[in-house]
Specification:
22-stranded antiparallel barrel, 5-stranded mixed β-sheet, globular, mainly beta, disordered N terminus, about 45% strand
């Protein structure tokens, strides 16, 4: 009721003021509106002599052989009214598999998460975030996360004019990582005056409240200087409880075994069948199978309905987890830039950006398995103690979802500084520039509310002090110097634990990483001579950069509990905390590069070609850690006439291994694994699993082909149709291989010991497994192809400006091939192995913008994805193998308040995202069958309908 009241008041306050929205964007290839059409409101200022992203010599998007889309920031905010530019980018069809604040963050913050499971990470075509290069105004920015990904929320947004998206390999132009493409945030360098905005929003359910305040100003300094600066602060309260905050979720989880006899299926109200919130007695003997439904009182355990998974049940008394749906965040961005013309031909600038951001996510309560209790535990009611004593039973074990304690909280704090200085100029028709960049990122991840194993073991062993009659820790009597402050812990009931005992038992683990990058680059470009078809343009460039990384942790896998004086729940291999991180000394790599790019016009104004031009680039890259490589790109643009143009490219690209790939510090986890060498008699072994980097890794090599056409029919002024085909193959792809994986073991055995997988299985002279290894290797291949389509139409309706834009991506397959293993097709599929994210085969984004009156503008944004398979693993059997299609509509209304409020260049706007309150179809991660209520079972934004009001002013 309270949330509905808030929504009604929000709508009533907004309805009196009208509607409108930001101007539509155009791709670099799209034409301006026809001369007869009214001009769009607030057109973007023209910026002369723009260098097109993806090239150092091409100065017109229409001449780019590589597919290029430009989206204005105004249009992006229509796509995601209450989010960031980066949130909006993820609604565009070319992005698939990106991570953000609702992408299943984990408390360990490792693997694909890179230290921050709620980071906003872009991923073109779902080929991996590390194969998408992110630039800020044409310059590489240092990684934010330890896996070398960039949290793009760090980009200052107030002065970003547009975002260029290059979908094709361009390593020859920009270097490593530009395998699937480049995302370049383009700065407005000539901003004068001031602008500010303030907006607030909330979901229909009364949560996910967001606040966004920011401003920018710019002015000339004398006759030759210019200064501009911006600040923005954003907050979002998130959706904190998956178990309670959205009724459509209803504790859904994948169940079954994935076989014909026991297929996977998505069930609701799933609970763990061997856990209870108050404690489930899991040991055999007296009181076995009962649970503490209320504090201190045992009752029969209702087992609900079987699910086909041994872990779980539907309904009944089983416990479940409760993770957050959307991670709350707070972030402040700062930016400043100073430009100065030393002469008419020489220009210098210095700019700096900073970002302070924190994400918070909750992965659920502590899940305590098989803890041992004394049958004479002082908190155990006397009647139960007597039953145990009569049976001669001295201990029992209990499983528990510890809902009486705070949930595990992962807090990631990022502090990133970016400094860039440059000089540029012209000489005799040639343009030159040189820049130096320094960047550093500090990422501190704190996992709170974790049980300290040593303290937990002491606190669980509660006895009566014979001297005082008080309940104390047994260890405080036998070892008072170490456990004198121990507070006994009562676990016999959902809320039995005291706050003092929780404070004593629970602790936190911190993981701190530093990433630094220094880079210098220089380039010169110009025309070397003219041909019959036009000037031949050449660009030469060179770059040096050094990247370093270090990490420290307050709890490593080698930090073990001291079991001296403890009777239960502590062994020589017990780690002090259930979540650990490795330490890493400073590791670094340096890179030297040199490149050339040339644009050669071949034909002009002949019978079959208005123009024909060739573009080619080559780069030599030398890594201090992983060798030397040559990359290249060849492309061409054939303009048949004023209506039709064809373009195409072929490129060889690389993605060098990251410092973490190469030098990940060794971590050891000892556990039970199955040795499958003898298929008739598999053996369970208790051995270490050793996880480390691989300094012998080489760069991945990508090969991309693109071919497309641009059609601008003269008989429909303002219309542009674009279609581009792409085909990408990544060889020697870096994949982390687990030696204990059954399929990996089988591939080794089938090869009679010749497979590289065999090095991941260590045996002694008698053939017994003594260790398994986990290590990244250049061993897989990734293949994908698809078609991008775009329609742009700018016209007038009833004498008012109308803009239409449609972006489409069709990507039916993403094959992951690995020797000795079945190929996985992650295209048109949901959750996959190794953290692969959902990847629909069809995605569509549509923009409609209409100037209703001089002061009122309406913008609509529609996003659609098709249904997709629940899993990319072909051998799995599903009862319902598809996730339903999903579409959302956003409406933005803007009212020009300049005359009514007598504030020039001001506007009030109202946005409704997910206008029809579409509920995301449940999908489900097949490996999450044992995590009821914890692993996410959806792939779309769970917010639902949300509302936003804001005010914008420019002066």
């Amino acid at each position: 009721m309270k949330s509905r009241y808030l929504v009604c008041n929000l709508l009533l306050g907004a309805s009196a003021l009208g509607l409108a929205a930001p101007a539509m964007a155009q791709s670099a290839d799209a034409p301006a509106a026809a001369d007869t059409a009214p001009q769009a409101a607030n057109p973007a200022p023209s910026v002369p002599d723009i260098i097109v992203t993806g090239s150092r010599v091409i100065r017109s998007g229409a001449a780019s052989p590589t597919p290029l889309t430009t989206i204005s920031t105004d249009s992006l905010m229509v796509a995601s009214p209450s989010g960031s530019i980066s949130d909006a980018l993820n609604t565009l069809p070319v992005f698939s598999g990106s991570r953000n604040s609702f992408s299943n963050p984990g408390s360990n913050a490792t693997g694909v998460q890179g230290g921050n499971g709620a980071a906003n990470v872009l991923n073109l075509r779902n080929l991996g975030a590390t194969r998408t290069l992110v630039l800020f105004d044409g310059h590489r920015i240092p990684p934010t996360l330890y896996n070398s990904s960039v949290d793009v929320d760090l980009i200052p947004q107030e002065l970003i004019r547009s975002v260029d998206i290059v979908t094709g390999g361009v390593s020859a132009v920009y270097g490593s990582d530009a395998v699937s493409g480049v995302v370049n945030y383009v700065l407005n360098r000539n901003f004068n005056g001031f602008q500010a905005h303030a907006e607030v929003g909330i979901s229909q359910e009364g949560d996910a409240a967001n606040r966004d305040f920011g401003g920018a100003f710019g002015f000339k300094v004398g006759s030759r200087g210019h200064f501009e600066a911006s600040v923005q602060h954003r907050e979002n309260d998130g959706i904190l409880n998956r178990a309670y905050d959205r009724d459509w979720d209803n504790l859904a989880a994948v169940q079954g075994g994935g076989t014909t006899a026991n297929p996977y299926y998505l069930a609701s109200n799933v609970r763990l069948s061997n856990y209870a919130f108050g404690g489930y007695i899991s040991s055999k003997g007296v009181l076995s199978g009962q649970h503490f439904g209320s504090n201190g009182v045992l009752s029969a355990f209702d087992r609900g309905t079987a699910t086909g998974s041994s872990c779980c049940q539907i309904g009944g008394d089983g416990a479940y987890q409760n993770s957050s749906m959307i991670s709350p965040f707070r972030g402040t961005q700062l930016f400043g830039r100073f430009d100065y013309d030393l002469t008419d031909d020489i220009h210098v600038y210095v700019q700096g950006a900073a970002n302070l951001k924190k994400n918070t996510s909750y992965t659920g309560w502590n899940q305590l398995a098989g803890l041992t209790y004394s049958t004479s535990n002082a908190f155990l009611p006397e009647a139960y103690q007597d039953q145990f004593a009569a049976a001669g039973q001295s201990t029992f074990t209990m499983n528990q979802i510890w809902s009486g304690a705070p949930r595990i909280e992962a807090l990631s704090k990022t502090r990133q500084i970016y400094l860039n200085a440059g000089i540029e100029g012209s000489l005799g028709g040639w343009k030159w520039d040189a820049t130096y960049t320094h960047g550093m990122s500090r990422l501190k991840t704190t996992i709170s509310n974790l049980p300290n194993a040593q303290r937990l073991a002491a606190a669980l062993d509660a006895v009566v002090d014979p001297a005082t009659g008080n309940i104390v820790c047994q260890a405080s009597l036998t070892n008072p110097s170490q456990y004198g402050d121990c507070v006994p812990l009562n676990m016999f009931g959902p809320t039995a634990s005291s706050q003092d005992a929780l404070n004593y038992t629970l602790g936190s683990v911190e993981f701190l990483t530093h990433t630094k990058m220094d880079a210098a680059d220089a380039s010169i470009s110009g025309s070397v001579f003219d041909t019959w078809a036009g000037p031949v343009n050449v660009a030469l460039s060179a770059e040096w950069r050094k990247l370093s990384f270090d990490a420290s942790s307050t709890a490593t896998a080698n930090d073990l509990a001291d079991c001296t004086g403890l009777r239960y729940n502590c062994t020589a291999t017990t780690t002090l905390y259930p979540t650990t991180f490795p330490n890493s000394d400073t590791v670094s790599q340096s890179v030297k590069e040199a490149a050339i790019e040339v644009e050669i016009p071949l034909l002009k104004d002949v019978a079959f070609a208005k123009s024909l031009a060739l573009n080619a680039a080559a780069r030599y890259t030398d890594y201090s850690t992983s060798g030397s490589y040559a990359t290249w790109k060849v492309g061409g643009v054939w303009e048949v006439n004023n209506d039709l143009k064809f373009r195409g490219t072929i490129s060889r690209d690389i993605r060098a291994p990251t410092l973490y790939d190469l030098f990940q510090p060794e971590t050891v986890v000892t556990g039970s694994f199955v040795d499958t060498k003898d298929p008739n008699h598999p053996v369970t072994v208790y051995v270490p699993s050793i996880n480390n980097g691989n300094p012998d890794l080489k760069a991945e090599v990508g090969r991309t082909y693109t071919f497309g056409a641009v059609y601008k029919p003269h008989f429909i002024p303002g219309l542009t149709l674009t279609a581009d085909y792409y085909h990408t193959v990544v060889s020697d792809a870096i994949t982390t291989v687990q030696g204990f994986n059954a399929a990996i073991q089988q591939a080794c055995y089938d090869s009679n010991g010749t497979s590289p997988y065999c090095s991941l299985i260590q045996r002694d002279d008698q053939g017994n497994v003594t260790a398994f290894y986990i290590k990244p290797q250049n061993i897989s291949k990734v293949r994908t192809w698809g078609i991008d389509g775009e329609l742009d139409y700018n016209t007038s309706l009833a004498g008012r400006a109308l803009g239409l834009r449609l972006l489409v991506n069709y990507q039916p397959h993403i094959y992951y091939e690995q020797p000795g293993l079945a190929t996985i097709d992650q295209g048109d599929a949901g959750w996959g192995q190794n953290g692969l994210m959902p990847s629909p085969s069809v995605q569509i984004a549509g923009f409609v913008s209409y100037q209703v009156t001089d002061g009122v503008r309406v913008d609509l944004f529609e996003h659609y994805r098709n249904r997709f398979r629940r899993s990319g693993v072909a051998s799995q059997v599903w009862l319902d193998p598809y996730v339903k299609s999903y579409a959302t509509t956003n409406l933005t209304l803007t009212f020009d308040t300049g005359s009514s409020l007598k504030i020039a260049n001001s506007s009030f706007y109202v946005s409704v995202s997910n206008l029809f309150n579409a509920k995301p179809p449940l999908s489900g991660y097949y490996s999450g069958t044992t995590s009821a209520g914890q692993s996410y079972e959806f792939s779309d934004d769970p917010t639902g309908r949300a509302f936003l009001v804001g005010f914008r002013i420019k002066g």
